[in-house]
From TrEMBL, chain A:
Entry GO MF terms: RNA binding
GO biological process: nuclear mRNA surveillance; poly(A)-dependent snoRNA 3'-end processing; rRNA catabolic process; rRNA processing; U4 snRNA 3'-end processing
GO-annotated cellular components: cytoplasmic exosome (RNase complex); nuclear exosome (RNase complex); nucleolus
InterPro entries cross-referenced by the UniProt entry: ExoRNase_PH_dom1 (IPR001247), PNPase/RNase_PH_dom_sf (IPR027408), Ribosomal_Su5_D2-typ_SF (IPR020568), RNase_PH (IPR050080)
Gene3D superfamilies listed in its UniProt record: GHMP Kinase, N-terminal domain (3.30.230.70)
Location of the Exoribonuclease phosphorolytic domain: 9-131
The protein, known as: Exosome non-catalytic core subunit rrp46
Listed SUPFAM superfamilies: Ribosomal protein S5 domain 2-like
Assigned keywords, A-Z: Exosome, Nucleus, rRNA processing
Family indicated by similarity: Belongs to the RNase PH family.
Superkingdom to which the source organism belongs: Eukaryota
Organism: Arthrobotrys musiformis
Automatic annotation (TrEMBL), chain B:
Keyword rRNA processing: yes
GO cellular component, one term: cytoplasmic exosome (RNase complex)
UniProt keyword Cytoplasm, yes or no: yes
Name used for this protein in its record: Ribosomal RNA-processing protein 43
Subcellular compartments: Cytoplasm; Nucleus, Nucleolus
Region (Disordered): 1-20
Chief location of this protein within or outside the cell: cytoplasm
Organism: Arthrobotrys musiformis
Amino acid sequence: MTSSPLTPEISLNPLPQSDGSCQYTCPTSRTTILTSVNGPLEVRPKDELPNHATIEVVVKPGIGVAGVRETRLSSIIHSTLQSLILTNHHPRTLIQIVAQIVQAEDHTSLPLLLTPLINCTILSLLIAGIPMRTVGWSVHLAVLQDGKGVKSVEGQTFGLGGSGGGDEMETEESEQLVVRNPGSDILSRAKSSHTLTFSKEGEILLIESLEYSQGSGGESADGQGWDISDFVKLAEEGKRICCEEGVEVIRAALAERKAF
Amino acid sequence: MSTLPSQVSSGNSQPPPLTFSTSLFRQISPALYLQRHLLHSPPTRPNGRSPFQCRDFTLTTNSLSHAHGSAVVRAGDTAVVCGIRGEILTVAPGDDPSRFESYHSSPTSATHACGSRGAGGASWGGLIVPNVELSTGCSKKYPLGPPGGLAQTLSDQLHELINVTKLVSLDSLRIYDKGSDLDSTMKIKGYWSLYVDVLCISLDGNILDAAWYAIVAALKSSRLPLACWNQTEERIFCDASLNHPISLRQSLPFTTTFALIPLPNPEGCGDEAAVLLNDPDSYEEDEACEILTILSTTDLSTVQGHAPQSPSGRLRTRVEKIEKKGGWKIGISHIESCSHLAASKAAQYIQSLTKEQLAPM
């Protein structure tokens, strides 16, 4: 498992003082995230919920002080975890999650950061022993129009079959290439980017899909976008990666830990 | 001491039935109140709409006299004002204009923009700067103070939307030196930088759709002064009259937001039921466990009543963004059906935009 070039580097409990922590390095884009989870803690009276635990997510940037982008990242992670953590098991408490971006190719890019942040957070929640409904795994897929000159690790790319719907106008789009967890150089050439998070059972936890229109804006950007049937195919592929490989990665990472 | 007689009396007689007025029920148990409404057949929301019905909206453009373009959008009790103000960004001699037009760098956080701003310029994203302000008293939940999480997230989302949809044609933001015979990139002497300010007057759910619609309408109605480079003075001069429109895309993209409300399953077995609500208000948003936003465009020719291009008669839709946050109950089939609804709503938006007399100021 560890020999595969697509397996992330995971180090569990690098911070011995926190209840659970994890350092995660994306195998291809080399984005490194360090998260720490503490909880259940005492909650500030302002944030106390009578029959649920309060979840607090803080994303700390790799450069400078936190801004608008970090606030958005933490709100996305917060809403994803809200449905994973069984918050009614610890009412009137606080579960605090701090995620530090250690290394990233592009510190402003939301899709490049989101997948490692979610995976790392879920692993550290497992280590901290926070009760969760299920586990999830996130994957970032970039769709490229053509695969010319794309430097990728073996197994990182796969083709997406001809776009469905039987629309004759779209047959030339059948040679689309999908890259898993792309770096910033591949993402800058991508046609669209999809961050998909699935639970172990195959439920969709989070979708952040974006079209990157080409051209200098205005009328040249008309007619971009994708058909919904293309998205369904991509989501199926993402589900397969998350439910089979992602769960396997979590299992292998936790198996190395002898005792909790 | 005084409680004793009442206990005795309640033991003897029938306990009084626990009834509330509707308004009290609505406040003390919002989840149950909403579920009871949605379990009716046909399901009706507390506000009288059916699950897939969106609120009627009104649009007024160019009501602010000091802005270059403005729009007021009201959908139900959500009211949003958007103002566009253009400022001139001069390209210093020796600056490479191509740096202003890089597509994929989208620095938003002020600290992170040092890469491009430190060099003295702005990227494509830097030319259009959206900001969202939730005015004091727009909703009970957002008290006075610095911009909270929602306002910041919205600003970033709108910035991302402007960037990825490439809504504005970059060419209409360039200021050229008309007189010189240099090649086209050397003729660029400056840019229009657009400040897009969105002020939420009243917030009753689904602010993203309203804000995005206001931005598109305001940009479409904007008229900038005609600016050109004066060679003798070596400065950019503006004509007093406002007659330079900002050219937008032909097929305008619009967002549609859905909220998923969980329903209890009477049998207590199998999957829990849930219902998707189009255009949720804030009461429904508070109870929603999942929010789905779809950005889609619809072919203009089909909207205007010409023969539909696809044989099935459906509107030809292109999805440009899907965002789903929280929860786990929305499946692929939901997303597919919602994308069709989003297409018809986008068509509705486009029709109202063309109907609105976008008269120059």
